[in-house]
Amino acid sequence: MSPVARGALLLLLVLTLSSCLPPRRALLPTLNLPVPELQDFPADFRPPISAETGRPMPGFGGAESGETSHSLYRTPVIFIHGNTVSARFWLPAREYFLQHGYGRDELWALGYGWDHVHYFDANDLSVQSIDRIVSSVIDYLSRKRSVPVRQVDIVAHSMGVTLVRQWLLQTNSYHKVRNFIGVAGANHGTWTSSLYPRGPQRAVSWELAPGSPWLAQLNRAGEAPGPTRYMTLYDGTGWNDVFFPRPLQDSSALAGAENLAFNRERGTWFDHLELPLRPETMDAMLKFLAATGEPLPQARLPRVLRQGDRLLAEPATARLHCAAGGVAPQRSGPSVAEQTLGVNGPWSCFALDPQSGLSSPLVRFARREGYQPGGELRVSAEPAGGVHSQPQSVRLESSDPAAFITYSTGGTPPNSGSPLYRPDHPIYIAAPLRLQAVAITPDGRQSQPLVLDFDISLEKEEAETSLQRQLDPSAPEQYAGRRKKGR
Questions:
Q1: Given a cut of 80, is residue 428 above it in pLDDT?
Q2: pLDDT bucket at 370, cuts 50 / 70 / 90
Q3: Within this chain, do residues 359 and 383 fall inside the same structural domain, yes or no?
């Protein structure tokens, strides 16, 4: 065979083999090779640091100073990806949104996790990363526009849906998100998760198992709380999305949201990865986003004011949305000019101004009438942090029985609008994180924060059940408290 023929045959062989290989974003991680990171940001944007990897987040967003944007003052959209993928997943969505009137300054996606098929992300471990993403986009665009950016729209897919919902809850950030679209999220569990797994996916598996305590506490106060508008988009047939077969075909729906079982209602056959990226489904997203007026950036932020046991909204154009007990108020719920605090508190409220489109953070109050202040106010917990091999159910107690307790596992100090602790529902902690809690009395006094660190990792379990300890239970347990991140 001539050299030319051999060269042609070799080229044909290479092309044939390359056509059979999966994309490099799937192939390279399986070979333990790094995938080239997407870094498509303006030169003056500094990507935030991932709370899980400790590295600057890859992704896209923004326009260089010389580029023109179609509409510089439109509410920015932040795309949040699912488990084991990264911001590059959303590149087709960016192109489609650009074709439909958005500018590059208004479209953002950052990779919060590992971007590796062998390294599982988890909801609780990534909450701080979502907080950094939203803050970095808001701060950057506020500086660039020279007017404050008060809100963003978020489109999330798969595990990104429950992750964003947990971020909203744990950091009391509902007032920052104008619209939230959750595509194919495991809001009520997925069959691929179990309460009894072993291996690197344990944390996210325990979080998203059907009926898990983690999902119960995520949904307990309401599935569409706060001033945010909610939309879900999912399969609904039980056949096309492999993660949600029957009877979990409506797991993605949220009570109080605009729920669109797309395949079931439209007769389409889009799978889990196609649902967020098809022109038909993106058209539905764009329609939902366009239904909300743009907020007035220079308007005064609404507030909830207390006068005795009466609550008022400021400014006068704002209205109160309130709910009693452990339920959170919703945008779609009734609104009032003022609210009298009843005995069945505490009361959770936010003020929404329909003229400016802005709202206050969620705040919480208890009735003062008949309250007698006690002594020193403090919060205690059982267990009080520490190293554990299994998820923990944590119970909190206030030194003042009349006080209510709020807590946070998202890295931010708790305030009155943080998740409300209920004595009949302990806090479920399945991953290594910091729990913070405060007690708040009816007269508004707040305790010093209780801060507890929980180290829950497979390494602890491995150390407890090592072969050496099985042969000799008196052998010391070799665990130095260093979790292997990324497993």
A1: yes
A2: confident
A3: no
76 occurs within a structural domain: yes
Residue 458 sits in which domain range? 379-471
The pLDDT value recorded for residue 193 is: 93
CATH of the domain at 47: 3.40.50.1820
Please write down the long-range contacts of 265-270, taking CB distance under 8 Å and 24 or more positions apart: 265/236, 269/240, 270/235, 270/240
Q: How many structural domains does the chain have?
A: 3
Name the percent of the chain in helix, strand, coil, to the closest 5: 25, 25, 50
Three-state DSSP at 408 gives: strand
Domain co-membership, 281 together with 343: no
Q: Rounded to an integer, what distance in angstroms lies between the CA atom of residue 161 and that of residue 215?
A: 12
3 domain residue, yes or no: no
Determine the Cα angle at 306 with ends 331 and 329, to 5°: 20
pLDDT at 12: 39
Least confident span in 38-47, 53-62, 117-126, 303-312 = 117-126
Whether residue 353 contacts residue 302, with contact meaning beta carbons closer than 8 Å, is answered with: yes
Residue 22 has pLDDT above 50, yes or no: no
- Is the pLDDT at 433 greater than 70? The verdict is yes
